[in-house]
TrEMBL record:
This is GAF domain-containing protein. Keywords: Kinase, Transcription, Transcription regulation, Transferase. SMART domains: ANTAR (SM01012), GAF (SM00065). InterPro entries: ANTAR (IPR005561), CheY-like_superfamily (IPR011006), GAF (IPR003018), GAF-like_dom_sf (IPR029016), GAF_ANTAR (IPR012074), WH-like_DNA-bd_sf (IPR036388). Pfam families: ANTAR (PF03861), GAF_2 (PF13185). Residues 171-232 form the ANTAR domain. The keyword Transcription applies. The keyword Heme does not apply. It comes from Microterricola gilva. One of its GO terms (molecular function) is kinase activity. Gene3D superfamilies: 3.30.450.40, Winged helix-like DNA-binding domain superfamily/Winged helix DNA-binding domain.
Length: 238
């Protein structure tokens, strides 16, 4: 029997999931993937992606709901310009209601976003007090700003995730915090490799490959990064 849950119930569940990071061990990559997936499910957005700062203080992609949003964000990183970069630098929300009218210096971002069919974007900082660790980026197909209620809710989700990552014990130990974030970024690289293996082996899209990887992780209660590493090392076949 199919059970339908309301938007408020779904929002409550993702808040609980994020809050659990304060008391339980958790997989950072899986946590952030759940966050971006929930944003697309809950809010008026077509795609979402999340960037974290790495050892060299540059932003790198950790989680994305589609190859389309991933492409746009990677273009931003390569150009070192765009709303996500601006959001991280200023630790403030950056909302572009019409990508066609974005700043002239964001030419690469604008071209990539329009090519993928995105009309507007909102970038939200992942911050705790004076510490900003990344950005949550929400892409919409139509022109027009994301409504204020969705922005507040998405920012709240990003805030809870940030608190979970920057737990009190890691706030007191800066190196431990940086190591945790770098581990998440390194894990994502392995996951990308594993997606490529599955896509090639089964002749499926990268989105389908990731879905299969994640389904196996959840079904067997094995961290996503561990499954990916075993697959890349040829210790596992999916």
């Amino acid at each position: 029997m199919t059970v339908n849950i309301t938007r408020d119930e779904e929002l409550f569940e993702i808040f609980v999931t994020l809050a659990d990071t304060l008391v339980d061990e958790y997989d950072v990559v899986e946590l952030l993937q759940s966050l971006v997936d929930s944003c697309v499910s809950l809010f008026d957005v077509a795609a979402a992606g999340l960037l974290l700062v790495d050892d060299s203080d540059a932003l790198d992609l950790v989680a994305s709901t589609s190859e389309e949003s991933r492409l746009v964000e990677l273009m931003q990183l390569s150009a070192e310009d765009g709303p996500c970069i601006e959001c991280f630098r200023t630790s403030t929300t950056v909302s572009i209601s019409d990508i066609r009218e974005s700043p002239a210096e964001w030419v690469r971002f604008r071209a990539a976003a329009e090519e993928q069919g995105f009309g507007s974007v909102t970038a939200l900082p992942m911050r705790l007090r004076s510490t900003t660790i990344g950005t949550l980026n929400l892409f919409r197909a139509p022109v027009g700003e994301l409504n204020a209620r969705d922005i507040r809710a998405a920012q709240a989700l990003a805030d809870v995730a940030t608190i979970g990552i920057l737990h009190e014990r890691t706030i007191r130990a800066g190196n431990e915090t940086r190591d945790q974030l770098q581990h998440a970024l390194n894990s994502r690289t392995t996951i990308e490799q594993a997606k490529g293996v599955i896509a090639f082996t089964h002749t499926v899209s990268m989105d389908e490959a990731f879905a299969r990887l994640r389904d196996y992780s959840r079904a067997n209660r094995i961290p996503l990064a561990t499954v990916a590493a075993q697959l890349v090392a040829r210790e596992l076949i999916i």
